[in-house]
User: What shape does this take?
Amino acid sequence: MLFNDRVDAGKQLAARLAFLKDHPNVIVLGIPRGGVVVAAEIARALHAPLDVFLAHKIGAPFNPELAVGALTSTGEVWLDETLIAELRLSPKEIARETERQRKEIARRLAVFRQDRPPPDLKNKTVVIVDDGIATGATMLAALRALRKQEPGRLILAIPVGPPETIQRLACECDQVIVLDTPEPFWAVGRFYMHFGQTSDEQVIALLEDAGLRQNLT
Assistant: This one.
């Protein structure tokens, strides 16, 4: 399957999540930046509030794209101890990259949430969304952190991801909605015709638009 862009992927996921439309206790969380574009379409279709949940991968020092762990905005850290041992990474190297990601998460929280408090997720149906999954490290950390907030139901909604990663993440949530699990799997961007960078300004605009819609209902 090939998506035109993140908006297209969000609309297709929203159709699969139509059973949640107008449900009073649903909240849609997007992982910035690209995941918020997908999540915004879902929130719009379901008439549900939209917010962000920040989780960043902890990259290997020699290859930032290689995830050796992940960190969330609520402070949880997940590390792939097997991979770290194989790569012979020192605790100091891991701590340095973790702190760098912690600072970036704090910066983005201040930009995206500003003075708004984080949402209360207890007993809610939480739909966590990204624009795709590769290794799954970031989403694994996110799901475990969200589970600690005691949602009534935790749903992962994702346009595309490798089958083995999706299967592993399914054990961390109550339901997975995924549109395509191609094999072999390449980079997430290979499954989009248009996969440009999403800016902070775009994320802010989507959150503001969702907030205005909620205030009008």
